[in-house]
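TL;DR need structure tokens for one chain.
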Amino acid sequence: MTTFNPTPRTLIIAGSDSSGGAGIQADIKTCAAFGVYSATAITAVTAQNTVGVQQVEFMPPDLVRAQIKSVMSDIGADVIKIGMLGNEAIINVVAEEVDEADAFVILDPVMVATSGDKLLEDRAVKALKDKLIPLADLITPNVPEAELLTGLKIADVDDLTKAGDALLEMGVYAALMKGGHLEGKSVVDVLVSEEGANIMSGPRIHSRHTHGTGCTLASAVAANMAQDVPLDEAVLIAREFVFQAIKSAPGLGEGNGPLNHGLVMENGEDETKIANNPFAALKDLKP
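>> reply
TL;DR here they are.
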């Protein structure tokens, strides 16, 4: 039986998504589904929807630092989840603050939006590799991000594992290598750590409603880690949460639509179950 902290806490350092499908908004909704409290440090404000990113404004680095300090000096965090950072100056500030924090650190190296829009400046990649990756306990790159970070070409599961090993050599404890961009009927992810490689496979859902899947997966892992769930188990639960959230997506927007974050986690003695939000049925009631 899993033992849960009385008040599990996450600090989410990421950008805001005006459409609510990714970024800070998706992170908070995901953590709430698991009953975890979320504090935030916003790195950027974006104007975006399901068809693309129209405008991005990065926060002043000092303001990002102030947000992190405010949260950590008062509320604290069991897990720090890092998403969109945008530029080198923000990366430097986040690295300095995270280095002083006593928390499990999850880095989702957000570089490109689902729509294809770039969300990380080219010169910031080196800073991410040199200063932030060595501070992370877990990194969660997709195939394009892993290729950019490691310089390796990834065409299959073996390549995913090799790229994960390369990230471990950069100083991270574990790497959740997401294989959604690889071809095949199944989606295969590989959790690479010092203990070896854990290959996880599941059915692929053919849907255009995949906006924010990376943010949601990393935050679901963060929410479980904040409740003392072991890493392997946290990843399995997070993968199932994302699967169900895509499967029951609300169908919003003309492009890459958001997931259904209105799922409810039911933590029983034997397993964690995912159920639909009981309030969703209210929309079907006649006045």
